[in-house]
Amino acid sequence: MIDQSVVAPPDSAARLPVRPSAGRFLILAVVFVCAACGLVYELELVALASYLIGDSVTQASVVLSLMVFAMGLGSLLAKRLRCRAAVGFGLVEAALALLGGTSALVLYATFAWMGESRYALIGFSLSIGILIGAEIPLLMTLIQRVSRQDAGGTVADLFAADYVGALVGGLAFPFLLLPWFGQLTGALLTGAVNVVAGGALVLWVFGRDLTGRERGLLLLVNVLVLTVLGTAAVTVDDFERAARRAVYGDGVRVAVQTDVQEVVLTGGREGPLDLYLDGRLRVSERDEFRYHEALVHPAMSGGRHARVLILGGGDGLAAREVLRYGDVRSVTLVELDPGVARLARTDPALAGLNGHVYDDPRFRVVYADAFAWLRGAARSEAYDVVISDLPNPGITPSTKLYSEEFYGLASRVLAEGGRLAVHAGPSAARPRTYWTVDATLRAAGFRTSPYSATGRVSGFGAGPDRAHDEEDAERDDWGFVLAAVGRAPRVGLSPQTPPLRSLAGPVLEAGVLRAERTRLRDLPPSTLVHPRYAG
């Protein structure tokens, strides 16, 4: 926001190397560039906070509120610099370029080597916000020195350039910087553009009004900032490799950034295979069979299962369990990220783990958002079993896939007597989230049978933070809900169930009792407009 209280009578006219109208245009162009860079820094912090900490709604709220508050402080502090507005603006832009450009590197480094990035995030949000807030008061003073326009017209021009620049920066971040350069290099490039624009304006347009000492200081500071940013850009690949080793260990075999998320595979050749999505451990070869057997087989054993729909599960491991039944005629998998499916098909270790299901003629994959796909699915498409193999509901992007509306759409594609199996998060560690899933299914018209599975030996599926305690993971469980329309389905196995490594009738009976002991009653359902899941 532009604080009109900073508008003051202009100082003596600047000695410009160009006509005043051209000088005014150059200042507005720099306002445009600085606004674009500032918004990129904000979006970068929000994206990294969501990726490194989790719960994107909370992190976005914290970052943006802190930055807006800090911008107000920066606007007030800038009053002290208005007597030396040109050199002050040059130093502010150099500091902003350095902090904003390196913010992604520092945040990722604190996460990788310290396991905690919240305090660094708060520090960057406040410091970058203060510097962004200081820009407009200083630019207001500079533009009044160039052209003696009324204050209202000056504010309008600055608003226009600022908001249009913010639009361009907001669109450039997801559509240009992230896909072309990635988070780290994109932030460094933005910082370089920022320091060049600010330094060029001050040293060229207002250079005649600076003392020799001020010109030397600004030139030295700008060169140092560009050197730091350039060095970081040259070494960013080495930094990423070192940070990945710190996060995932020395066994990283594959690390790719898809259009949806970062996908990392470790082990597989030496040691157990682990699959990480956006830094969260999603599959561990040590215990994934316990999870997938408990998710799939109670639903498959409850009746007909000729046609099966799997929502999520692009790793192919749930499909592996489904295709062990010889009378399954077709399996449709709806996966958001083609990159995960590509690895599940082509990576030797992961394809071996899923039994090469992508080569099975009964199996087909659809690349789509599960909610949108169900919404557009024809009512004639009836499935005997629907398996929801999705990330924990406490992770904000997943909340719509655990809503009453989502389950209402799922019920439309269930055949008569069909069953829906839902991964609902740990029942013991997060009982409110788990029983909210149960309440939401019942609100959507299902009868439910909750149960859980234990035996976890890794942090698979445990949550958004890589620092999840391994001892807690051993005590943790996987919570599931088996649902059907009409009457509650029985949680059990049938004589046709293939041999299993971890699951048996008594194990399931114990899982039902264990989940029941955590029951929370009278919880409201989660909907699209009122999500109830804690992050």
TrEMBL record:
Membrane topology of the entry: Multi-pass membrane protein
PANTHER family assigned to the protein according to its UniProt record, in alphabetical order: THERMOSPERMINE SYNTHASE ACAULIS5
Keywords noted in UniProt: Cell membrane, Membrane, Polyamine biosynthesis, Spermidine biosynthesis, Transferase, Transmembrane, Transmembrane helix
Highest taxon of the lineage: Bacteria
Gene it is expressed from: speE
EC number: 2.5.1.16
Cited NCBIfam families: MFS_SpdSyn, PRK03612.1
UniProt subcellular location: Cell membrane
Enzyme kind, highest EC tier: transferase
Primary site of residence: membrane
Gene Ontology MF annotations: spermidine synthase activity
Protein family membership: Belongs to the spermidine/spermine synthase family.
Sequence positions that bind S-methyl-5'-thioadenosine: 261, 335, 369-370, 397
Organismal lineage: Bacteria, Bacillati, Actinomycetota, Actinomycetes, Kitasatosporales
Stored InterPro entries: MFS_trans_sf, PABS, PABS_CS, SAM-dependent_MTases_sf, Spermi_synthase
Pathway: Amine and polyamine biosynthesis; spermidine biosynthesis; spermidine from putrescine: step 1/1
Protein name stated in the entry: Polyamine aminopropyltransferase
Domain PABS: 235-485
Record flagged with keyword Transmembrane: yes
Residues binding spermidine, per UniProt: 292, 315
Catalytic activity: S-adenosyl 3-(methylsulfanyl)propylamine + putrescine = S-methyl-5'-thioadenosine + spermidine + H(+)
Protein's organism: Streptomyces niveus (Streptomyces spheroides)
Transmembrane segments: 25-53, 59-78, 90-113, 119-143, 155-178, 184-205, 217-236
